[in-house]
Each structure stands twice: as C-alpha cells, then as structure tokens.
Design brief:
single chain, alpha/beta, UDP-N-acetylmuramoyl-L-alanine:D-glutamate ligase, nine-stranded mixed sheet, four-stranded mixed sheet, 10 helices, 13 strands, globular, carbohydrate metabolism, ribokinase activity, ATP-binding, metal-binding
Length: 301
C-alpha cells in the first residue's frame, strides 16, 4: 500500500446552495445549507485514503465543536490524525456558495490552520517515511516551504496544489516535483490564459505540471516530453467543491502504485467525476471500489 503524507489545512465548510450566486450588494434566497468537513489538506488526505493509500495528515484543528467533528471525519475515513494538533481557539472555516450549475465561490478563514507555523515533533519523520507529500497553500507559506524541503531531503515526491493562488517562493518551486493547478491558477501564476502555453511556462519552474480543465479533463506536461491531454467523463455536476482535491488525492495514489501518467490521470479524473455528482467535499469523495468500477466501465455515471 502506497504511503502518502499530507501537510495542509482542515476547515469546516459552511455551504449555502442557491439557484444563482449573489452579485455584490445583492441578497438571494438559498434552498439548502450544510456544514461539511473540508479544507484542502483534509480533502486531499481523505481522497487519497478512500482511493486506497495509507495516509497521515499534518495540520491543526481548534478547540471548538468543529474541531471535534473534523477530527472524527478524518478518523472515519481512515486518515492517521496523530500529528493533527489541537490549538486553542476556532477551527478553520470555509464559507461556500454553490449555484445550480455546481459552481462555487469560497471565502476561507484560517482559524487553527494559521497556528501551523513550523513542522512539529515527528512531522519530518512522517514525511520521510512517505512516498509522496501533498502540499497546498492554506497553511502559512513558511511551513509549506519547510515541508517541501524536508521531503526533498528524504527523496519524497512533492505534489503542490497552488491554491489559494499566490506568488510561489523560489525555494518552494525548487523543492516541487509535480505542480497540479487548475486553469485559472495556471493563468494567475504565468499571466497566460491558454493552458498549453501556461503549462510550458510553468515547466521553467518545476519539472512536471498538470493543469486541470474541469469538464474538459486535464493536461500533463513534463520537460523533454510532448504534452498529454486526458479527457474527463461526461457527467452532470451537482457540486464541484473538492473536486480538484479528489483528483490530486487519487492521482497521488495512482502514481504511488506505479501507473503511467496518462493512466493515472484518467483514474484520477474518474474519481473527480464521481465526486462532483454529490454535494460537499469530503462527503462526496469516492472509495476505491467506486473508482475502479467507473474506470472499468469507462464512465463515472
């Protein structure tokens, strides 16, 4: 079983479902509201665990009721939470509006995530024992850089999701093996709207890049290789929250199991396609048998 470490955030997602998202200064009436465990770190950890990996998360929750629920959700999905700290104060929250097309807008309040300002006792040893380290940008940047450098020292593959998108320090890029960005993040990082051209620009910074294109699939680029486009299954999206994290978690599992990149991307796309057909982030993430079944049928319906 492949071993994956995740250094990242935990948030409680406060999700409002509406027909049309409000514009600035506008009030709309929603039709449903849910509190759902999430956060990019927790999302990727759960996605990888449900996809069949042995997963441990490094992060923090608060002393509020959300913290209790977040830890329980991680434990219930088989994620090792021994190195998830409990810090005084509120847990992180994400305030999400989901429209009738499954699109979303998100405001993240860091809460306990902001307390993870450095690696703690046991964190580097956990990273050293993994095959891959998954990183995102909802923790303080210095901590993300510290984790990436630790992975590099021990020969562990680093997979970086540059979200929420922001300038990436050279020392983080130097310790990144695979960058997985959606097309909007790729454009923000490079100033280039075309995903193929943006991926080429990103290859000047890191050796491998995946640009996810939503319903259009994904694009893989690596130095010295021709780019590879992988289509996504055609499905009707209910909620796209967490789909990118589902994709990354499943991709890390597939690569850890030795699959070639095109096959790994297709399997990850099946996982993400399953997730968007259900509401929520963690709650929507598929299990291994579901992904395998979708892959065997060539569809995530």
């Amino acid at each position: 079983m492949t071993r994956i470490a995740v250094l990242g955030s935990t948030n409680m997602d406060l999700v409002a479902y509406v027909k049309t998202a409000p514009r600035r200064g506008e009030t709309v009436t929603g039709h449903d509201f849910r509190t759902i465990p999430g956060g990019k770190g927790a999302n990727q950890a759960v996605a990888a665990a449900r996809a069949g990996a042995d997963v441990a998360l490094i992060g923090a929750v608060g002393t509020d009721e959300f913290g209790v629920r977040l830890r329980a959700a991680l434990d219930g999905s088989g994620v090792d939470t021994d190195l998830v700290r409990t810090t005084e104060g509120p847990s992180g929250t994400a305030h999400i509006v989901v429209d009738a097309d499954g699109g979303n807008a998100i405001v993240v309040i860091p809460g306990a995530n902001a307390s993870v300002t450095h690696l703690g006792p046991g964190d580097e040893a956990l990273i050293a024992g993994a095959e891959s380290l998954l990183l995102q940008l909802e923790l303080p940047m210095d901590t993300v850089v510290e984790g990436a450098k630790a992975a590099r020292r021990h020969g562990v593959r680093t997979v970086l999701t540059p979200s929420p998108v922001q300038p990436l320090p050279p020392e983080l890029l130097a310790a990144t093996d695979l960058l997985v960005a959606n097309e909007h993040e790729a454009a923000a990082l490079t100033g280039i709207d075309d995903p193929k051209a943006a991926s080429r620009a990103l290859l000047e910074l890191v050796p491998e890049v995946v640009v996810t294109l939503g319903a259009r699939g994904s694009l893989y680029a690596a130095r010295g290789q021709d780019p590879v486009a992988v289509p996504a299954p055609e499905v009707t999206a209910v909620d796209t929250t967490g789909a990118g994290d589902t994709f990354v978690g499943a991709l890390a599992v597939a690569l850890g199991e030795g699959r070639a990149m095109p096959q790994a991307l297709a399997w990850a796309s099946d996982a993400a396609a399953l997730s968007v057909q259900r509401p929520g982030a963690v709650a929507a993430m598929p299990y291994r048998k579901e992904i395998d079944a979708a892959a065997a049928e060539g569809t995530a319906r």
